[in-house]
Protein 1
Amino acid sequence: MDKHSPQYFKHLALQLRFELSDAEAQDIANEFGVLIDQLQLLEAIDTEQVEPMVYPFDEPTSFLREDEPNQVLTPQEALKNAPAQLNGFFVTKKVVV
Amino acid sequence: MTYETIIGIEIHCELKTRSKMFSGAPVTYGAAPNTAVNEIDLGHPGVLPSLNKTAVEKALQACMALNLTIDPLVRFDRKNYFYADLPKGFQITQQFYPIGKDGWLDIETDQGSRRIRINRLHMEEDTAKQYHLEDASWIDFNRAGVPLVEIVSEADLRSAQEAMAYVDKLRNILVYLDVTDGKMEEGSLRCDINISLRPEGTSTFGTKTEIKNINSISNIEKAVASEIARQTALLEAGEAVEQATRRYDDVAKTTVMMRKKEGSVDYKYFPEPNIPPIRLPQAWIESIRSKLPELPDARHARYKGLGLSDYDAGQLIQNKAISDFFDQLLPLVKSVKLAANWCLGDILANLSQDQLTHRTYALCLSELAAMINALADQTISSKQAKEIFGHLVEGKGYAETVKALNIVQVSDTSVLAALVEEVLNENPQSIVDYHAGKDRALGFLVGQLMKKSKGQANPALSSELLKAQLATRKPQ
């Protein structure tokens, strides 16, 4: 399967469990084509002596949170977004992986 | 054909913290569903994780005890997958830079000590607990975000016994460190065991299966042994082992298929953007190292140094709560061996694990020590000690109990001498037997004397007096 082909995006969509029509997959593939072309321009830059950077700041922090329970939702608040609920549980369709 | 078994074990261990790995929600077990969650655990938009200091401290302690090299620059990654146990759509874990790597653990086997290499230890968050019903799944997010460490062994284990010894020892170390409560039955320590077979003498690995959901140490041995037998039978019959995840069925005494492995899932790991790298101060790491508690191996050696047998020392360290109890008793008693016997016998039998762990028993250490010392001095007999102990566990004092039970010990030589005289006169055959070298004769005579005294004669003194009298009554 070609990278960034419509089939590739359909495969990704399946893994992430959402529906993607053929037309949408084609749209995304086209957009990616443009993006990739633009990003390839960056390859002209010489990065030989440059360390890769993941975060915007070089300096690591040293912050660690003290182990104190300090924030808990009420079950009513916690379940507000539940698609369905019963006996305090979130209830979903049965999916066993 | 003979086969070699190759086993590697992954252990997930919940850390004993008060709050979660990345959120300030409380860590609970057995609470009502969804009562220990907050916006971070539920993956609400716009929330930011922050790392729990105690979780890191406990992960570091585990690394130190397992001889792992510590990476002081803590980094996290996202493991992306879509499933209802993970509301964010990803798990925060340490894929690329585990906090500890390249360690080892020595286990005792029938063939002596074996060193099992540990590939890595990394921190991550637990997922929600799901209950799959007939037509729906119920989800409780209380467990989502609970701090975990995953400890991955190299494929160095070769038998069911070794697999069990490895998990047992690892679990005991983690319990000694107070890193976890290590309860397999409650899922706070879970192991995934990878097993494959290959013909003896070959070097390529066979197809492996993974066993999950083992709820006790003893079931590890049973599960692995049954899986080895199953795979051996397949290979012997010329069939292939199917790569799959299986679970152990305690009733059927065999592993059963949970799901087939269809290729490997691409988790699209990438560095967690919401947690910048965290540099752990070296001084903090060293202060944790300097405060590591005594570990089971060291305690075992210390007990042997006190004169306990390898077996007794091993039995004691196996249970941290009883071992701690024994340690408290030690400075108070005259006989280490008697104290160990009582700890491993009547005390374990009379106090529940929960009482021992939380020290909620009525038994007073100094009163117990008084009884053990009286026994050591032979002021009381073992039979009397057992009777007294029954009262001590209810919180009674030693002196008070002895008085109430009317346990008096006759150590008056003139009284005892009269009884010795009587016993010898009544048992002439035993005198002959004694001089003929039959050891049991003396025991019998002491028994007769105890009977006459209604159990109140000092047994040690009685025995001495009997021996002295017997020497004067040598048959012609």
Protein 2
Amino acid sequence: MAKWVGQPLKRVEDPRLLTGRGVFVADLPLKDPYAAAILRSPHAHARIRSIDASAALAARGVAGVITGADALAHTQPFAVGVQAPVKYYCLATDKARFVGEPVAVVIARDRYLAEDALELIQVEYEPLPAVVDPEDALKPGAPILHEAAGSNQACHREIVYGDVEGAFAAAAVVIRERFRFPKYSSTPIETYGVVAAYDAASGVLTITSNFMGPFILHALVARALGLAENRLRFVVPPEIGGSFGIKTSIFPYLAVMGLAAMRTGVTVRWIEDRREHLLASSSGVDRVAYRELAARDDGTILAMRTRWYDNVGGYVRSPEPGCTFRPVGNWVGPYRFANLAADAHVVLTNKSLTGPNRGYACGHLYFEIERMVDLLAQRLGMDPAEVRRRNFIQPGQFPYRTPSGGLYDSGDYPAAFERALEAAGYDKLLEEQKRARAAGRLYGVGLAVAVDPSVSNMGYITIALDPAVRARPEYLPKSGAIESATVKIDPLGKVTAILGTAPQGQGHQTIVAQIIADELGLAPGDITVVDEMDTFTRVWGISSGTYSSRFGSVGTSAAALAARKLKDKLVRLACALTEAPAESLVFADGRVMPRGGGSRGLTLKELAGRAHWNTQALPPGMEPALEATAVFGFPLADSPDAQDRVNSSNTYGFIAEVMAVEVDPETAEIKILRYVTVHDAGVIINPLIAEGQIAGGALHGLGGALWEELAYDSEGQFLSGSFIDYLVPSASQAPVIEVEHLATPSPFTTLGAKGLGEASSMTAPAAVANAVSDALAPLGIAITELPITPSRLWHLLDAARRRPR
Amino acid sequence: MAEPRKIRMTVNGQAREGWAEPRRLLADFLREDLGLTGTHIGCEHGICGACTVLLNGEAARSCLMLAVQADGAELMTIEGLARGGVLHPLQEAFWEHHGLQCGFCTPGMLMAAYDFLRVNPDPTEEEIREALSAVLCRCTGYQGIVRAVKAAADRMRSAP
């Protein structure tokens, strides 16, 4: 019975953060630390002829300089998730392949001295022609980044589900469109930070950083450094200052700072600065997409075809090409159509590297799908809401197997969609639009819906490989997704829960305290939750970490299961002590007592005292210690089959959004008048935290759709190296986001909860693009490229006005 | 490179001193020399506002100032906002209204809000949004922050 789950509890994390006492990686007290500074390539593409670091080595306070020669001599390239021979070392070795690529590292007494010494390093570059557009990069004669690969195509998969040809041949309507999705990053306000210390006596390299998982990357770093995994310790400090997927991609820096610590013997601390972060940390891919849709004339979608050019930058950095394949199981979104073809090109260009960024490929996906649905509605002269209604997967169809192998666990898409229309007053908005248009105003209403996947199945990424490769006997199949939790009760009856997660503001301590309080009949304040990840002491697996909206489903499941395991033990103990039958015992108010009263039972403190102090009197066969560890793994996360079908995530929520906008015809400013979002993330543990996740995700999506772009010129020079050029939305630009929930509990998680951390980041671009397109429909403008910056939109408006009518 | 200079300042009501080269940023001096790591550094070019402190009573970016420029000044940092273990109404309101997630921008946000409410104790939502655009937050979408500042303003006005 839930007393605490579902309550908008204030977070236990907050008092320390509100008073400046949080401990982030840059705040860690260190014994005799040295600072690292990184020399980066000023060229988009250049051969490195030579590096002369002698003057830097002689400079004041310098303990060492690490270059590509050290990387070649002492490290291996990182494993990459594609067949193309792309060698990716932690420092540039032969060539620099993007502006900002690390070329050398100086280790000095402090950061000021390290930066002084950087200026003394002489690098002789031979600049080479560069290419930044993913379509250009595949044309004959394009500069080749990795000569051994022979082309810039890192991976190419053509996958067909169902009878796509037949569906297009039978269609009454075919829509074709080309889309561009920009390269943007959620830019956490805390940048990357690494502390590396090598203990030569034990041979252990300890790396403390704001890395967030997945912890498969621990193995990649260990292999790159030639260390056994049990000699490489990853530690995550109590706080991470935001990540949104971006801090997954810190791992090459863990290797390079680890190398520096091992080579110099000193404790190395590197705190990335903002320019470095914008230049060379990570982002989602920029994508060019050609999409086709086949439909009946009643609006029923029969099939879609898509051709993607996904730009991963200069190297393929794990977990790429997840940018392309992460949503494979939900490639059809919330719709019933059974025929789908994807022609996916993963392309190398002279841009910075990519990786998970909130929504990981779903913002791209739903921008395309939802724009296509609106274009279909426009072609048929139908209400876009009605077209969606006609295509939704129906509530009776769950669990629903998609053509690409996804297994949608639960949902009621029509109900959630109608709830959004109702909350927004959709009909009234359309009336308002009529009045506005009659007055010559540019007023639009946009809809967007999405299936929100969470907890990636580790097997999805192998869709990047041809099924013939996956069928080879030496191939190691990949599957699953796990999380662990340990719950223990001390001799005075208080509870400690230990997680294997790396939260970045998601409030795991609060959530787990709520869950365990319910399971054990305690108050959240009785429970201390420890979430500082440490690979030497936590129970973890390769999928561990706080990414792909995992915690809401897999993390909460592990915590509840661990508490239940411990509870079983307490029940046995209480039965032995009170002679009450097990099924009569209830846990409430810190006691274990028979249902219906009659006896005061035992307090948890009394039980714990007996269990810890009198182990000889434990029931026969009971293992001593009041402690339980549970590892929750999803049972339906198999590796891909021979037809490339895979349940790529483990729970699937639903999002329905309505947005009303007005465009200023003079300034091209887009004003968001209403933004309603309805989420089905199953059981909500803490509505306060859930709303915070949704509002934050929505603004990330809007940022990428309206303002943010990591821009390059045609020569590969980087144009947005500060927050003056890279426009992060501020409070004055953020709209009010109206959030509602509908809950269809997941049958696959312990508490029925699903993830929602990425949430509206994946729908906001589609919603705003549809709303702006609707506003500009009288001018014949349809949005197909993001971000819709004022200057870009002004040019569209200007061109439309010049067009003869 | 010039020689370090002795710097004296009052921080959160306490006299503090240290040595710093003229090029040393005030933010680095506070964090590394005085151990006040509550002030965070997010961009080092004056846009994100995470490093906001009060300098002689007014909000200032500690990443855009040198420590030597603050010699003799009176500073307040996030560590000085709660008094005697009692949270400031702004801190209470941020807690109540989920005005923070990762907490990295929070010190700057609180210091900027503190300065803003001093100047405008009864702001509209629009004024709050305008004022807080001096500090970037990536987690919250600003929704909880705006509510918190409004609630704190109401409470501070009604407090005796």
